[in-house]
Amino acid sequence: MKLYADEPDADQVRALSELVTARLARVEVPAAVWRKHRASELSAEHAAALIRAFEVDWLGLPSRAGRFAVVALTDRVLNDAAGLCATEGLRGYDAVQLASAAAARAADPSCGSLACFDRDLRQASARRGFTLIPAG
Amino acid sequence: MLAMRQISLRVPEQLADDLRRAALDRGTSLNSFATTTLRAAVDPDFSGDEAERLRARLRRAGLLWEPEGVAPDPPTDEELGRARAAAGRGTPLSELVSEGRGSR
Q1: pTM
Q2: Which residues contact residue A36 at a Cβ distance below 8 angstroms, ignoring those fewer than 6 apart?
Q3: A-contacting residues of B 6-45, CB under 8 Å?
């Protein structure tokens, strides 16, 4: 989300060269943007611009690939997420995010950092050995 | 010593010319350039850049989702800058994502 809002730590997230995300983000990002609009905190024009930016990052352009490497919702990811609900006490979507990150790390050990801002998800991610962004 | 095998490929003339030119530009032989290029196609560790290597490893693990669709026209830098600044005020988007995930 920090890619699309000038919030604290946004620069740190935007500086990351490779971004892996769970497929769920395709819905969660627009949902949060439109939620902000419905709360009268963001104009429709600004919301639409952010959604366009996100969709370009998601789909890419003919001249360049998308910004994200998207982790598929495989049976294994969903099974691992179900397990994390039990072992880490996470909510369903938080568990899918962490299971997706863990699957990506298993495929590519360089995926050892996780940018998240939810307290419970951060704590569970740290227990699973991820380096948190932002730190602390 | 690495065992070598010779293979023949039929490619369009233009592609053959482009390959020779690309190899020449890199100061290498056509054989060496083609070998490097073909190796990158099947081995993520030889892909061109880190982002592509990452995608290749996820793809190989059956984890890469390839989004389908055509992106809209991107906002201009000015439009995006204004929208990001506006979104940075009030409730953080990350908090709204968390709310969207339901109660604990």
Answers
A1: 0.79
A2: A42, A47, B87, B90, B91, B93, B96
A3: none
Q: How far apart are CA B3 and CA A120, in angstroms?
A: 53
Q: What is the DSSP letter of B72?
A: P
SS (H, E, C) A20-89: EEECCHHHHHHHHHHHHHHCCCCCHHHHHHHHHHHHHHHHCECCECCCEEEECCCHHHHHHHHHHHHHCC
Residue ranges per structural domain of chain A: 10-69, 71-133
ipTM score for this prediction: 0.90
**A26/B64 touch (CB, cutoff 8 Å), yes or no:** no
pLDDT digits (tens, 9 = 90+) for A85-107: 999 999 999 999 999 999 999 99
Tokens describing residue B45 = 């560790």
Specify which residues A61 forms β-bridges with. A64
Query: Which of A20, A50, A72 is the closest to B83 by Cβ?
Result: A50
Percent of chain B surpassing pLDDT 90: 34
For residues A98 and A77, give the distance between their C-alpha atoms in angstroms, rounded to a whole number.
Answer: 9
List, in order, residues 6 or more apart from B46 with CB less than 8 Å away.
Answer: B36, B39, B40
- Count, in order, helices (H) and strands (E) of chain B: 5, 1
With tokens 């790390």, the residue in question is A105
